[in-house]
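Below sits my pick:
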Amino acid sequence: NYRYYNPADGRWINRDPVAEEGGWNLYVMINNNAISWIDILGSEFKANQTEGSLAQGNMPVGWYGKTTRPIPKPEGENEISEECVEGKRKKTYKVSIKKSKKFNVTVDSYVANDQTGRAYTANGLVEIRAHEQRRVDVYQKAYDVYLKIFEKEITDKCSKSGLNKSQATIYKRKLKTWLEGKQSLAKGKFLNWSSKQQQKITNENQTYFNEEGGRWLEAGGLFDSIGSPHLVGEPEPIDMSCPQ
C-alpha cells in the first residue's frame, strides 16, 4: 500500500506496516526521520517536486527550474452548531464551529537535471535545486501560518456556552460572518505574502555567477552560483480574536 497511515481514523492501513515494508530498519517507512516526517497525502499542503530532462520540463527561457504559483482551493462547507444544553433550572445554548472549509494547496516544482557541463556546473545544479526549494518553502510557510488553522484547529476556537436562545441566534450569525471573513483574509494574505517573497527570490538573478566569477546573465558561460540567495522569513500572523 502506498499509504502507511490514515490520519482520518488514526490507524495503520496495512496489517503489519513495518514487516510488510521489509528489513530490520523500523524507520525506513518514515524515511529514517521519526521526528519531522509527514505523510504528505494526509496533509492539505502538497509539494510535487520532480526532476528530469530540459525537454520534458517546459522550462522558462534561460532557466532550469520552475515552481508553480498555487491558488488555495477551499473544500467543504462552514457549519456553525447551536447545541441546546438542558440544565436543572433552565436550558442554555452552546454555539461553536462544527466544520470549516479547508484549503488545498498543491505546488508543482521541477528541475532540469540533465544540463550539467552544458548549461551549469555540478554546483550550479545544487544552487538551482536550492532556488526552487526556497520557492516551495515560501508556500509551505504561508500555508502553515494562514491556512492550516482551518484544517481542524479552528473548531476549538470561539465557542460560547451558557447563552439564551436570543443570544445564541445572534452569536451564531456573528460567528458565521467572522469565520467567512477570516477565511477570505487568510487566502488573501497567503497570496500577497507569497507573491512578495517569490519576487525577492526571482531577484536573485541579479547575483547569478558563472564558474569564472562573472555575471552569468551578462557574460554567459556555465551557471555556477547565486551570490545573494533570499532568506525567506516568517509571515506575519493575522488576528484571530473571536467575535464578541
